[in-house]
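Subject: Collagenase-like protein with putative collagen-binding domain structure
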Amino acid sequence: MLQVLLIGLSACWLRLAPPDAALLRAGVPLLRVAPGGHYLETPDGAPFFWLGDTGWLLLTKLKHEDALRYLDERKRQGYNVVQVMVLHGLRDKDAYGHAALVDGDLARPDTAGAASGPASVAPAGALDAAAPSTAGPAADGSFWSNLDFLVAAAADRGIYLALVPLWGNNIKAGHVTPAQATAYARFLGARYAGSPNVIWMNGGDIRGADAPGVWNALGNTLHGYGHLVTFHPRGRHSSSDWFADQPWLDFNSVQSGHRRYEQDTSAGDPHFGEDNWRYIQADYDRSPAKPVLDAEPSYEGIPQGLHDTHQPRWKAADIRRYAYWSVFAGACGFTYGNNSVMQFHEATEKTGAYGATDPWEKAVGDPGATQMQYLKELMLSRGYFERVPDTGMVVQTRGAATAEGAAAAHTSTAAPRGDARYDYIAATRGRAYAFLYTYTGKPFRARLGRIEGNYISAAWFNPRDGRRTAIGSFPNRGERTFDPPGAPAPGNDWVLMLDGKKTL
């Protein structure tokens, strides 16, 4: 009890410390929810489009040199968030062999050898909650010094780390009490109080109904340090399923999961299959509004259904579909994942989890990974905060071109690649622009007159390379058929860009 009290007193005092100036100079201000409740922004009101990568085992698998190579590559590819587990298990060690905890006790982080951190943040008494040092201690440091290094290195590259404090299965198994969770969260919150590029991702592939007292203890405590907090749920669920009204939940995270339509049969799931836009739509329509994103869709290179390595693998085209479907449904961003990269599979290792064979150094350049930057560029190219989802721009002609058509097709569980559900057209618009996404590249009809302007200037945007091809201009009224380039097929995906103009 005395130890917990000391932690609490230190945490309360440290919470008042100013953010580390070195990190602020790196251009990574604390994020916040924008007015209206659907998007994220910086303190000066600039839009923040979350383009995340999944680097779950970064802390426990990579030494500094490799970690920096990874972060440099993701920065070059346009990513601004990396999702990382702090602890996958209570006995975790980092890549240098440093244990995270004393005797696997979550309330006793092992900080022996940790750097003292910048002077702007005071030591924390019973537990060393000193803020990150940019010195980057390696073999002579501690588990927490190495996390400090990653936080600072990411900040230097303009990257936020969405940190999962402890993976959910440990808590479901009953290995953590609310008191231990509170002590641990105070340690984390105080240690990184001066690190504006930290976002807390509570949970970890878990239902919130499993040990809700622990999740609320973590969430409430971490939220007190001023960083954004979300919850990473079990597959085919959203954090809103359990915590929609919790004040510590700043934005919702969805795990749409890794299953095909016909594989989505688990009892108690909503059975949206590959329609990840449905999770986003449901959360977007909630009141009060909170931002939402798909934080774990199907990973590039992972077997469809996850566990059977003989199944086909999800490819770049599938990942693009999940990205554009979810963002056009109102998401504040998207998290990409790659089977080899998320576990940092090494060439010297045997086959990794879920049949991973490519080394992470190769997989980091897979097609889907390099193509996500074009989505971010597109979304930031027009008025960001005015954007709303609007499937009313799509005229149902056949199959599942609209949400209504997709709902009708949704009653079937079989999903051959010619399934009409893949013909769904996602649409979003601002005051004087609109984007419509087709995954299959089939002709579709759009309803005009829903954005400002007497005329429309239209172009095709290629999600594979970010290039645009002009279509032409025409009056902004009635309905019009648009025929994407190329032969219709899954993966011949395009975005129709419409911009309103007063005159030709």
